[in-house]
What we know:
Largest sheet: 2 strands, parallel
Oligomer: single chain
Number of helices: 2
Order of helices and strands: EHEH
Strand order of the largest sheet: 1-2
Strand content: 5-15%
Shape: rod-shaped
Mean pLDDT: 89
Low-confidence stretches: none
Structural class: alpha+beta
Distance between the termini: 63 Å
Radius of gyration: 23 Å
Number of strands: 2
Amino acid sequence: RIVGTIVTKNSGGDATYAKIVAARELKIPVVMVQRPSMPVGEQVETIEQVLSWLLSYLDANAK
């Protein structure tokens, strides 16, 4: 057998599913790779909060 293991990203699409089905039929191990979680940044919900955050950010970085 030429292919020993299939490494694929977990995109959830039809192409990923087809690879898994084919690998199972051929008894080839599959390694699913998932993108790491992004760290949570500051969040705002209103335009007023956006403007307040932006002004604070610009003021802090202007010095």
